[in-house]
Amino acid sequence: MSARDAPGISAAADGDPVDLLSRSLGYPFRDRERVLIALSHASYAHEMRGDHGNERLEFLGDAVLDLVVGEVLYAAHPEWSEGELTRARASQVRGDALAARARQIALPSLVRLGRTELRSGGAEKDTILANVFEAVIGALYLDGGLAPVQAYVATWFLAGAEAAIGPDAKTSFQEWAHATLRATPSYHTTADSGVDDDELRFTMEVRVAGEAWGSGTGRSKRLAERAAAEAALARRAARS
User: Fold this and answer.
1) What's 210's DSSP letter?
2) Which of 58, 62, 117, 230 is labelled catalytic?
3) I want to staple 224 with a disulfide (CB 3.0 to 4.6 A). Which of 42, 105, 129, 218 is the partner?
């Protein structure tokens, strides 16, 4: 049996996987066995030991990522609304984003797969890579607490967070209005359902020099203003 066909061998495993992962993350793991479990997909664990492999660590890592990413975003962007924070966090912990992070720390070459998954290219499947990445985060948390996870998240996860919530439509429209119309946009409430949890509670209209340029709705005035600015930008684009 070749190394590639043997269960537990990744697509391109060279060297000690724990040492390789430690260098990738910049953190020296103390519990080697836990790291090996984190790298063990259920297909491998079932063939080798009859257990579920990294699934419990995956569960823990998912929860830790939600907490730490949310915490860092909350501290870094005090001006963001709940919706903006939620969208930014979701963009950072969705499956394809986690799979990309997994590739950056060479997890395709470290994940341990069963024969069938290995033959079917499981080491490059986004779902598998996202899951093993979460398991690694779970192992990192258990090994060193929140601090190493927070350091990793701050380094890798926040670079694209601003892009995740989209451009600041209000700022963009205001800059255009100043440059083109020599006036500052103003926002006016045109409707309020009065229902706290209504996703469309507020309707806001943006006006420039008394002229209505766009209208939008949202759960908060802030979100409705943004929607109105987006409508105004769309109108501006249509006129171009």
Assistant:
1) T
2) 62
3) 218
Fold for the domain defined by 169-239: Double Stranded RNA Binding Domain (3.30.160)
Q: Across the beta sheet with 211-218, what order do the strands follow?
A: 186-192, 202-208, 211-218
Contact predicate 21/36, CB 8 Å? no
CA distance 208 to 225: 14
Instruction: Please tell me the distance from the alpha carbon of residue 58 to that of residue 140, in angstroms, as a whole number.
Output: 11
Q: Cα separation of 225 and 169, whole Å?
A: 9
Q: Which residue is catalytic, options 58, 84, 117, 134?
A: 134
Beta bridge partners of 40: 112
Distance CA 170, CA 174 (A): 6
Angle between helices 126-144 and 146-156 (to 10 degrees): 140
C-alpha–C-alpha distance, residues 78 and 71, integer Å:
11
Asked whether the whole model's pTM tops 0.70, one would answer no
Q: Is the pLDDT of residue 218 over 90?
A: no
Q: What is the pLDDT of residue 47?
A: 67
Side-chain-side CA neighbours of 54 within 13 Å: the count stands at 31
Is residue 62 annotated as part of the catalytic site, yes or no? yes
The answer to whether 134 is a known catalytic residue is yes
Instruction: Say which CATH class 17-164 falls into.
Output: mainly alpha
Where do the structural domains in the chain lie, given as residue ranges? 17-164, 169-239
Percentage of the chain lying above the pLDDT 70 cut: 86
What pLDDT score does 4 carry?
A: 36
Per DSSP, helices labelled H in the chain are 17-25, 32-38, 42-48, 55-76, 82-93, 95-104, 115-119, 126-144, 146-156, 161-164, 169-181, 221-239
